[in-house]
Design brief:
The chain is mainly α. The chain is built from three helices and two strands; from the N terminus they run E-H-E-H-H. 43% of the residues lie in helices and 6% in strands. The protein has a two-stranded parallel sheet.
């Protein structure tokens, strides 16, 4: 199974309990994707004020990151599965009376 960990606003995949969760899931043989999504500096935001628009932390920026860092890993897995099922099998090696290849 594949897990994607999403950190919150002003966070990172190295913060809170994400490293421990990632480690435990991987120890169970799971694949874990924990990308760093674009965030703004909390210090800068508090200096400017909470009403100031965020520069990095937008839905569009997060979707762009998701599309570039997460989706390719799912598509890679799909390509691997397709390749596995679309291989040409020499059935004659399993059934000598059959000579066709699928």
């Amino acid at each position: 199974m594949k897990f994607v960990l999403f950190h919150g606003a002003f966070g990172s995949p190295e913060g809170n309990w994400f490293p421990q969760l990632k480690e435990k899931l991987e120890a169970l043989g799971q694949e874990v994707i924990a990308p760093q999504f674009p965030v703004d500096s909390w210090d800068e935001v508090t200096k400017v004020g909470e009403k100031a628009p965020l520069k990095n932390q937008s839905l569009q920026n997060w979707l762009t990151t998701f599309e570039s860092m997460v989706l390719p890993k799912f598509k890679q897995r799909e390509r691997e599965r397709e390749a596995m099922f679309h291989r040409s099998f020499a059935w004659a090696s399993f059934y000598p009376s059959h000579s066709r290849t699928i």
